[in-house]
Amino acid sequence: MRLGQPLEDVIADHERVLDAWQAGGVRGLVIGRMVFMPTLCAGIHAEGIPAFEPDARVYRALDVEPPAPPRESFPEKRAQLDRMLDGARRRGWVVLIFEPAAFRGAGGEGNVMLDDRAQRAYAARAQDTLAAFPQVDGAIIDGPEWPYELSGDPAALGPYARPRGQARDMFEPIAPAGRALAARLGYDFDALVAAQQRLRDRLGRLDDATVAAHATGGLLGGLGLLGYDAGVVDWLRFRMDALLDFVRGLRERLDRSGRRHRLGMGPRTASFAAAAGYDFARLAEPLDYLLPKHYFWHRGYDGMYGSWARWVQALRSWNPGLSEPSAFAAVRALLGIELPGVETLGQLDDGFPASFFERYVADQTRRAIAATGDAERVVPWVDVGRLPHDGDPIPAGDLRRILSASAAAGLRRFLYHNHAHLSPAEWGVISELCGQRWPGPGQDGYRPPDGFHIHPTAF
């Protein structure tokens, strides 16, 4: 179970909540970001305030500035938080901090995949956070990742556009800091920039005939959509190598702290992983856990249906003569998304057909397990409910189908995204599949909060 913001919703009554979770099958806790959020009024929370004082020695060791001390301390809340972490450990749970580098100091604002100073600031804050909470086993990092969507013109995307502040484009320029990293990794930076532009141009020159000629040709034939451009392959490889280099560097710096913490990472689900720079198989080496995002909703942001629609609609906005079926065929060839009976944007509004669970969800699960070689290390994020990431609702019945299809494909465990918006229906499904169905023994008086969180601090 992920316990996100506000922590205050649980820590004051943690024994009853942890008992209920345990009865329902919870065996691990992901907590964080590690901030307190004082209530202003009527359930409105103030900006998060870090739950611990920075240790300047950690930052000095990596030659970066420590963040400023919290503007306010909350000793009673900190005591409650520590008691909850102790309670989770007493139950034998794995306890991991979400985003341990949150609220890092000056210098940490750069692209951590490209900028050495940003990497050191990130690692220092992660070390400091883990040291402040010795009860925990390690941490989960949420990215970093490269933009993986085709944002196109927001007006052209219409109802499929990501919410304001969430729109990023796969063809954003590579930051100048990438030049030194490219050289270190054996790439020509200028060639990468040129290849990125050629790919953008190529996707802007599609028509029905070109798609028909290449989209069903398998891997080798599908390369025709990219113009058989070796530079484009290098551009994709560079993005994967840069992300992997960051994770390996973080792993090494955390290990130098004197304690071997467990480390997990939450990449996109397999269809979008390569576009976002994730190489599951190579990431499995420095990571203890791979947490691919089983995020499937339409619209909003980060959901598979919504991303699929944006790719289709962006290609059509770039290529006015491209038909909707051809745009779907192109995306199918590029990303491997294939669902029988889903061939139009309108059909995405019909919800998930049976083939979605039997084929797509199962395939995404199998691919992650195969990449790591160990189902115990694959723990997908699962998010559904009333407004997942500002997207269309996913009912509890579909949650059951997602989990059942994943289990049939070999999955052993999953991470529910955020307790703050767990509904009674979802907890009923989870507890029935994983433990004792709620309400039941050990769950007296517990009720899921069913919050309606859409603000980024909720995630």
* CATH fold category name: TIM Barrel
**Contiguous helical run count:** 19
Structural domain tally: 1
Strand content: 5-15%
CATH superfamily: Aldolase class I
For the largest sheet, list the strands in their spatial order.
1-2-7-8-9-10
Q: Strand count, sense and closure of the main sheet?
A: 6 strands, parallel
List the topology elements.
Blueprint: E1 2-3, H1 8-11, H2 14-23, E2 28-31, E3 35-36, E4 39-41, E5 44-45, E6 49-50, H3 56-61, H4 75-90, E7 94-98, H5 116-132, E8 138-141, H6 154-157, H7 178-185, H8 189-203, H9 208-214, H10 218-222, H11 230-255, E9 262-265, H12 270-273, H13 280-283, E10 289-290, E11 293-294, H14 304-318, H15 324-335, H16 345-348, H17 354-372, E12 381-382, H18 396-408, E13 415-416, H19 424-434
Parallel strand pairs: 1-2, 2-7, 7-8, 8-9, 9-10, 11-12, 12-13
Antiparallel strand pairs: 3-6, 4-5
Descriptive notes:
- The chain is of the alpha/beta class and 459 residues long.
- The protein has one domain: Aldolase class I (TIM Barrel, Alpha-Beta Barrel), CATH 3.20.20.
- The chain is 44% helix and 8% strand.
- It has helices spanning 8-11, 14-23, 56-61, 75-90, 116-132, 154-157, 178-185, 189-203, 208-214, 218-222, 230-255, 270-273, 280-283, 304-318, 324-335, 345-348, 354-372, 396-408, 424-434, and strands at 2-3, 28-31, 35-36, 39-41, 44-45, 49-50, 94-98, 138-141, 262-265, 289-290, 293-294, 381-382, 415-416.
- It has a six-stranded parallel beta sheet with strand order 1-2-7-8-9-10. A three-stranded parallel beta sheet has the order 11-12-13, with no helix packed on it.
- Helix 5 links the parallel strand 7 and strand 8.
- The protein is globular, with a radius of gyration of 22 Å.
- Residues 454-459 have low confidence and may be disordered.
